[in-house]
Amino acid sequence: MSIQVTNITKEYGTQKALNNVSFSIQKGEIVGFLGPNGAGKSTMMKILTTFLKASEGDAAVNNFNVSEETINVQKSVGYLPEHNPLYLDMYVREYLQFNADIYKIPKTEVEKVIERTGLLPEAHKKIEQLSKGYRQRVGLANALLHNPEVLILDEPTTGLDPNQLIEIRELIKNVGTEKTVLLSTHIMQEVEAICDRVIIINKGEIVLDKKLSELTKNKQQIVEVEFDYRVEEVMLQRINNVEKVENTAGFVYQLYFSTEKDMRGDVFDFAHDNGLKILQLHQKNTTLEKLFIELTKD
Ligand SMILES: Nc1ncnc2c1ncn2[C@@H]1O[C@H](COP(=O)(O)OP(=O)(O)OP(=O)(O)O)[C@@H](O)[C@H]1O
Prior knowledge:
With 298 residues, the chain is α/β, with parallel strands linked by helices. It contains eleven helices and 14 strands. GO terms for molecular function: ATP binding; ATP hydrolysis activity.
């Protein structure tokens, strides 16, 4: 098992940030740790990376106990903290070489991670000159330097613009083909885009732990479609299995279906039969979003 958490409780004074939390993550899984602000995500990650001690319970990373075998845990884990601390006046390559020296990592590894994280064009720049997306890449490169088996990423895409977001997600997905990844986020689409499994935490307790493939088996489905022309909602209601139609903007419609069948083909046929052009068409899975709201509301 890559990560094993058993009945972890963490108290800050009288406040319980984590309450009897247990889960395990197998080698090679990419798991999204999803929860609203203050749910306890960072606290859990700090315990797994040995920065904090739990008040009660036990955890192991790569089969090393976090309170007894801290050095081995640190060797096994690459950690990107929420507020990625960087020495802004250092150059990218210099910063990574500096960290490699501290941990006695060969310089050749620095070049490997620079290449792997797409930092080559920026490696000669000062960190302060980099965009937020590239700074996150530096953080990720730093977390990968010692080639750890497990990556723990605390909100790695917060504050990134849509292009950077896609790039960093791709990078994480790529890295995740070889490593176990636990990443925290508030963003459901992120989990859907990157993860195999989702753990939702609310007020220090796990409220859901499921494979994404199990969630998508759900029968609810929304197809969002943009036509080149206005369409009467009663017309759209004629498409098979439509339960509800919403005109969300201009000629954009959300069609709610209650079936496992992928309905995009039927929407395409509808457009074709009615002489409409489709400007965009995609299927949205509402399950995770609905579950999140349901499970984390007060
Ligand atoms: N050092 C601390 N001292 C006291 N309380 C703390 C400390 N760190 C966190 N907390 C509290 O513990 C709870 C969980 O915080 P944590 O940072 O783990 O949540 P989170 O899910 O990571 O939130 P966010 O998404 O906002 O980063 C919060 O109520 C927070 O205020």
